[in-house]
Structure formats: structure tokens, C-alpha cells
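# step 3/5: fold
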Amino acid sequence: MQRAICITQARMGSSRLPGKVLAAIQDKPMLEYHLARVGQAKLVDKHIIATSNTEIDKPIVEFCQLNKQPFFCGSELDVLSRFYHAALHENAAPEDIIIRLTGDCPLISAILIDEAITKHRQGDNSQYTHISLSYFPRGFDVEVFSMASLTKAYENATTVAEREHVTLYLYSQPDTIIVPVETGELGWNKFRLCVDENEDLQLVTTLIKLLDKNWLNVSPKEICQLLQLHPEIARINANIIQRIAH
């Protein structure tokens, strides 16, 4: 039976906002929000955190141990290798689906994770399926591909960029079938819900405070409508320029 294995990359060594994945939001580490939101996905069979084997990332290991969260420690710089071996750690078979997330997305959507998995299963398992950032904010990023595709990338990617950015090799191949999930609305992509800078953390913190107890189950549509209703919140990080794709 084909499994859906979700792997979240997480590290402490961000140059712009060091330690961001464990930054406190309402007295809880940001990664805790991420895990709880992913945990609402109905189609994910396993969720594992992929961090590095360096001293700086030990707090992430300790967080995972404390919260009984499965994790894997691998190469700090060869993130593709880390990701591939995290999947092997979970005994991923070639036909299994791999879902790539990043730990700096505290409001990641279980709804969109399930949508991306469903869209992938409706097509060819060799395709690259992703949440379209033309229709959704960054911070809802979800990428889906097979373990066979991940293995191909691991064995063939050679450039520094391809080793650092897990899916770059996959979606840059001329024969790759790229399938976007475009169920959002044009204009939602002007919002920014990932955390790279202090302003991002301020926005997400403000939003989570406003959502109060609804933060766990609030939908992407509701979040975007809330930002439309409160442009002063959206403006908090409106000037941040995304340097590189996740």
C-alpha cells in the first residue's frame, strides 16, 4: 500500500532570524504550531522532522524528544541528502508519496496538504505536485513527489544549489510533469505567512492572537480573508523580499 510520508525540514541556523523554528509565539515554540497543524491532515501516514547533525540544531532534537516527535539528523549543507536519508529512515518504498514542508510555516494548512496529496494520486506518480504560490501565500508551501523521484534527484543532482534545495532538480528537469494546486484566489499570494524575518514573526504572532482558539483549524480561505479584513496586519511584513525559494 502506498504511504504518504511527510518530511519537515527544520534548522536553527537561519542567518536572518537565528533559532526561528523554536521562536516563541504565545509561549509555545513555532514548530509546535506547525506540528499541530500538520497533524490535522487526514492523508498523512507519517510525519518526521529532518534536521542537521550539528551542535546548533540540538535544541530541535531535544524538542522532538520531549514531544515524542519522530526526527532524523543528517547533513547540514547537503539538504537533499538529509531529506533522502530521512525518507529511508522511514523505510520509504519507491511508490510511496513524499510531502516536503519547512518548519518556518506555523500556519501550514492540513487542508492544502490533503489537496496536494489527492491531486498527486489522481495523476502520474512521477509528477511533481505543489501548492501554487500564484494563488496562495508563501507559508502554505507544500510539495509532493514519489520516493522514486526523490531517489533520482539524490543520485543525479550535482550542483550546490540542487543539493541545498531539495526539489530544484526535480522541477527543473525538462521531462518533469509539474502539477499545481490552484484552488486559492489571485491576490492571496501578496500575503506572506512564512517566517524569515522579525516582521514575519510579528505578523504570525498577531494573527495567531487574533485567531485565538481557532488557530488550529482555521482554513487557508479564512486566514486570507482575515488578512484582507485587517490590512494593517498584512502590512507588518509587506516590505519583506523573499530571497530564495524554500
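# step 4/5: annotate
Residues 152 and 170 are 8 Å apart (CA to CA).
# step 5/5: archive (pending)
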